[in-house]
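Suppose a colleague, Dr. K., hands you the sequence of a protein chain of 172 amino acids and asks what its three-dimensional shape might be. Before reaching for any lab equipment, you can write down a predicted structure in C-alpha cell form. Begin with the sequence itself:
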Amino acid sequence: MASNQNQFLDKFKNEFEAHFGSNITWKGGQSKNNVAAFKQPFDSCRNKPINSNERFELGDLSVILNGYLIVIEFESKELPLSNLLKYWPYLRGEFTCTPERPILLCHFSDWWSYATRRDLWQWTIEQMCQDSSLLVELQGKQFNHGKKGGRDVQESIQEAIDWISSFCKLAL
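The predicted structure, expressed as C-alpha cells, is then:
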C-alpha cells in the first residue's frame, strides 16, 4: 500500500493535470536533479569525515508552469520549519545549484500541529520574501492536507491549485 505522502502527491498531480493540462513533466524526491547542498558545509557541526552525499531535497514534487517553478512539500504531520528554511540559502545562491525561475511553494501539513508552528512558518516566509538578496521571487503558502484537520483532501488540493492559478494565468 502506498504511503499517505505518495497517495496525496498522486492525487495532487491528477488534479493539477486536469486543471493545467497533461503535458507536464514532474520531478521530485531525492533524485540527482532535485537536491542541493551548501557550497561550503559547516565543518564545525558535522561528523568527520563529512559525507559529501548529504543533500537537501528541493521539494517532494515540482513542475515548471508559465515561467514558475511550483514546489510541493508534504509533511505527514506537523509543519517543520527546516523544510521551509532550506529554501532561503538556495534562493540566495549559497547552494551548489541556484534557482532559475520564480518559485511558488505549496507546503502541505496536517493542521493538528501547533498553530504557533504555522505562525512561525508564515513569519519566516514573509521574511524570506522580503530578502533583497534572493536571486528569484518567492511566494509561499501553507495548506492543510486534509487528514486530521477535518478538511477534505480534495478541497485542500483545489485551494492550492486556485492559489497557483492566481500566478500562472494560462493564455487561452
